[in-house]
Amino acid sequence: MTKHEYYTYTKEELLNKGAKLPVIVMEDNAAVFQSMAEEMAEEIKKNNAEGKKTVFICPVGPVGQYPYFVEMVNQEKISLKNVWFINMDEYLDDDKKWVPETHPLSFRGFMNRTVYSKIAPELVMPEEQRVFPDPENVEYIPQLIEKLGGVDICFGGIGINGHVAFNEADASLSNEEFLAQKTRVLDITKETRTANAIGDFNGALEDMPKYCVTIGIYEIAHARKIRLGCFRNWHRAVVRRTAYGEATSDFPVSLLTNHQDINLKITEFVAALEG
Asked: Which GO molecular function annotations are given, in alphabetical order (predicted)?
């Protein structure tokens, strides 16, 4: 028996023991990513039809949804002219400035290469509606969200220590103090640097950035909907703690599980304990 019984939950137990948020099991990564892309497209089409803005908080991790989304936008001629993508975060250099877009880990570079440059020019949103947190002006995003009338959907993943965006675990804060944190610059924890080096940088831990700028847990918690996706090997434990662990600032996603409209999509691989 492990110290925390939920880490041993089978798929059936994970789904049937009273999880703190809806957990949706899908066949594989492609199914999770396609589902996220479809929800992005449907929300935009609905708001376009009603003459409303669409405001998303968007991750670079997970990223598999973007090729499906780009294809839907181009094929269905979905206008993004009234859409704002507010990206969650960006890596910083040792001077706490954005890493250059040419850096292999740059989220700005990724979004430009994989999303914005692939969408037909007549459909893509203006550059000022492609927003990243700026270490030189951390107040901008909270003010922008308020001005736009709030965030429709926050999409994201969950880090190995429960972080959403780069809102790293901090047991020194009360849950209320943690949830009050807005966009800011912070150090990336050793655990996150290690996991991201393995997952995104071929294990090159010594060259992983040490700093980041991140949207706050406050902005995420106040989105009208939160949609999370998990698909990595170590997500098996993360998902079980998210669904059954206590609400604590030492595992930030746990503070979001009582949100009024949240779900967590996972693969059969993550739902299983073996294989």
From this structure: glucosamine-6-phosphate deaminase activity; isomerase activity
Quote the pLDDT of residue 221.
98
pTM of the model: 0.96
When divided into structural domains, the chain yields a total of: 1
Residue 225 tokens read as 């909907």
Domain span holding position 214: 5-271
Average pLDDT over the chain, rounded to whole? 96
Q: What is the pLDDT of residue 161?
A: 93
Q: What is the CATH number of the domain that holds 37?
A: 3.40.50.1360
Identify whether the C-beta of residue 84 lies closer than 8 Å to the C-beta of residue 148: yes
**Tokens 């040490």 belong to residue:** 210
Q: What is the pLDDT of residue 273?
A: 87
Enter the tokens of residue 94: 């040792």
* Helices 29-49 + 65-76 axis angle, to 10: 40
Full 3-state SS string of the chain: CCCCHHHHCCHHHHHHCCCCCCEEEECCHHHHHHHHHHHHHHHHHHHHHCCCCEEEEECCCCCCHHHHHHHHHHHHCCCCCCEEEEECEEEECCCCCECCCCCCCCHHHHHHHHCHHHCCCCCCCCHHHEECCCCCCCCHHHHHHHHHCCCCEEEECCCCCCCCCCCCCCCCCCHHHHHCCCCEEEECCHHHHHHHHHHHCCCCHHHCCCEEEECCHHHHHCCCEEEEEECCCCHHHHHHHHHHCCCECCEHHHHHCCCCCEEEEEEHHHHCCCC
Q: Which residue has the tokens 């250059």?
A: 100
CA distance linking residue 234 with residue 231, whole number of Å: 8
